[in-house]
Amino acid sequence: MSINLRGATAVLAFMCVVTHMKPAISAPADDQDTARQVLEKADLIRFPRDAFEVDVEIRTATPGQSAEARKYRILSKGNANTLVMITEPASERGQIMLMKDRDLWIFLPSVSQPVRLSLGQRLTGQVANGDLARSNFSGDYTPKILRNEVIDGENHYVLELTAVDRSVTYNKVIYWVKQANFRPYRSEFYSVSNRLLKTCRYENFQTMLGTLRPTRLVMEDALRKGEESVLEYSAMRLRDLPDKIFTKEHLNKLQ
Question: Which of 3, 14, 36, 107 has its CA 20 to 30 A from that of 68?
Fold first, then answer.
């Protein structure tokens, strides 16, 4: 029996080409799935999936000015229902922000009706309304993996998060997540014009509700050196939060 070596070689070469083509075809879908999984796992490290309450103190430093401190209590249920209540300063106590889906209102004791706000509007210092009211990235952004990066000897995913629409807090976020444990490390926030607005570092991981979570976020202005806001999270606990408290009609009952 004779063997056609030329034909066999051609078939083998064709099989090799097909074999090498398959990963190239499936890689984009695999990368998208990986990016979504990384983002979701990092979100769960930042905040629990179940309804919870947490206290936040924000200290803002601006060169040439006295440091400012403000305190808030956040009630959150999923990624679509949040109440942000000002607890200090005393002069602003009673003001409450309500987020439903991507709609945001503020209740002022001196005004009869809640006032509509945007998530991207500045709340205090470098902190936008959405930084407190919208706790997770998964529902607002489409992620993709840009690259892997080694920082201090540890591998990190670098994700690009693109806003699903114009109503979310930022148009784009570049997000560093540690590969070994999916802990958030750093983020950069960009405007619609692709201008870097600010950066954020996730620090001081401590156990809250059974998970190591970042309890300090340091937000720095990208244009004005020395301007930063430090968010300190504490007293996180699970809460039974009925849907009715996340309604405009219920806001004045929370005083």
Answer: 107
* C-beta separation of 109 from 118 below 8 A: no
pLDDT of residue 255: 61
CATH architecture of 44-254: Clam (2.50)
Q: What are the boundaries of each domain within the chain?
A: 44-254
In this prediction, residue 29 carries a pLDDT of 61
20-71 pLDDT per residue, tens: 433 333 335 678 899 999 999 999 999 999 999 999 999 999 988 888 999 9
CB-based burial, 5-20: b 16+ in 10 Å, e otherwise: eeeeeeeeeeeeeeee
Two tokens at 140? 């607002």
Residue 159 and residue 39 in contact, taking contact as beta carbons nearer than 8 Å: yes
Q: Long-range pairs for 192-198 at CB < 8 Å and ≥24 separation? A: 192/166, 196/222, 197/170, 197/221, 197/222, 197/223, 198/126, 198/222
